[in-house]
Amino acid sequence: MPRVVIDPMTRIEGHLRIEAEVNGHEVTDAWSSGTMFRGIELILRGRDPREAWIWAQRICGVCTTVHALASVRAVENALGIEVPDNARLVRNLIAGAQNVHDHIIHFYHLHALDWVDVTLALKADPTKTSQIAQSISDWPKSSAAYFKGVQDRVKSLVASRQLSLFSSGDWGHPSYHLPPEVNLLAVAHYIEALELQREFIRIHAVLGGKNPHPQTYLVGGMTTAMDANEPEAVINPERITLLNQLVANAQTFVKQVYVPDILAIAGFYRDWFQYGEGLGNFLAYGDYPSASIKDPAGFLFPRGIILKRDLSAVLPFDPKNVTEYVTHSWYEYSDGDQAGKHPSLGETNPKYTGPKPPYEYLKTDEKYSWLKSPRYDDKPMEVGPLARTLVAYASGNEQIKKLVDGTLAKLNLPPAALFSTMGRIAARALEAQFMVDNLSAWVRQLDDNMAHGDVRIHNSEKWDPESWPKSCQGFGLEEAPRGSLGHWVEIENKKIVNYQAVVPSTWNAGPRDAHGQRGAYEASLLKTPITDPERPLEILRTVHSFDPCLACAVHVVDATGRLYSRRAVAV
Amino acid sequence: MSKIVVLGLGNLMRTDDGAGISALHLLLADKRLPADIQMIEGGTLGLDLLHPLQGVTHLVVLDAVDVGAAPGALLRFENAELAALPVAKSVHLLGFADLLGAMKLLGHAPEEIVLLGIQPESTDWGVVLSPSIQAAMDQLVEAAVAQVHAWEQQAVELAS
Question: Taking Cα atoms as reference points, which of A364, A349, A344 lies closest to residue A499?
């Protein structure tokens, strides 16, 4: 059976490998493998739970901050700590900014070049690009002279052979369908997005002390001191003004650039609303509390489950029903590998049984991944922006319904079109808009609290380990940009005795389970059309539509061993 | 107005790959460079460095670069020569090549970029430099100091 392998070269953020069976011009089966061991769970054993977030945060350098939040929430849950309102707001702002930032970078810098052919942008007529830009948006950078300038800069970069950003084995691939002028538009916005993201993430520098990896978390709250009369305070009126500016700029960009670009590009790739669906099961833990974390009804992103693409019912989520299998993962469970384990009873016993590298193919009928297989009620689930959008849509969230229905109407598509590769991409853009539209309210609440003299940012009642029970367990759930994230912690005698992180890319990129059910990536690749098996651009399109954290760089090797390289941008 | 920055790149957990960072630490302890010369520990970051490098006119990059030379050999690349670098040879250099490209596209790349590299012996896991690299550290630091001084001298001459 002809098998196409896509494997990254060593790069900063992790390792994802896809093996796909291609028959004729279609993917008939696929296996997703994480080829790098994480192991932070083992590092955390025996440590003070109050410092767990500092370590856990380093699970990832791209979705920076998300593991810190999940970790403090898990420990607070175990110890029964409620954080002050200001800490809730600062956490919402840090996480919300991360969501918007991540989505913009993902689309423009990690995914757009799967749809945009930079070499064609060089052939565009800037005057026509200007006309298109002005017909789809009020964004002011839209003159013919502006696009000519962009084209010249890209030309000189190409001429200097410093192609790094734009190097790809796929230029000229027959599956690129944008006219040269739209390619130029997208390339111009790729560059503008570089600038925007650089500026916008200053929110993390203000509220987190630094980016990546904000340093201002504490079990019980945050360290971001508030004082309306103190120029050195982390949060004061001057900082509020800065936060408002940064949010407003991002809001304009998302509304006038990101969302119109998605609509324009999707219009030329309507067939991709048919491919890449995958499981049809969607899970969202929900997030962004309006009051206590214990009150999911007050979450901005609702909690729930959608099964078999049925948007008429949002099923309740119960954390008890999460399990992880290792049947096809390089671990062993103490009582056998056929049954799943709840993360609170989770085990991390690595046991590599795969082929010795370098190898041609993984033994996909045995164990083939460092990722476990998370399941909900024994079913595989897709998590991420599409899952959140669908759960919110089916829950009747007015803001999301308006965004989604408006987009579907513009593209003249039914809601079922969302179950697809392009649906995933569109949902991410709409979510970015939903998110950025809500950030300013949190800044305002922070400002109001400060104006009313409420500057409480940390609850220290249970800071002293002497106040803790002898043993306790807890979990922290969160919606990270890539999807539902959970940390489970068990504390005994003031130390961590067990820690398990079930991360979004494990839900999406995990391997088959004991029942042979495919993970989300694996299922989404079935029936993907492949124009040229030597350059399986279509596989990258669908896998990248999930925003895989582990695939900054991918090597493409075909069955005869020829090597193609495709790179996205490291962030 | 020129702004000179020294950027150290590398992964301290991958033995000699961390040579650029180790050299930066030595430079920080060395008092010869004036206080207005900013030194940035870039680690393995890529595009996250866009912000700190905004407005930099003269950039010295300290890094391990594998060109197949003798371990500890000092390497120097400037401006256009950087395009010909073996980008895939370092654990992190791809991120730097991307960063350079991004700065060019944004139209605010430094006027002058000098990469002072050192040929690693090993980039395996480990936090200690190979003896051959350790022995060459002083030379790398001297080269960085000399480069910064040359630019400062240039600026003085231009001003007068």
Answer: A344
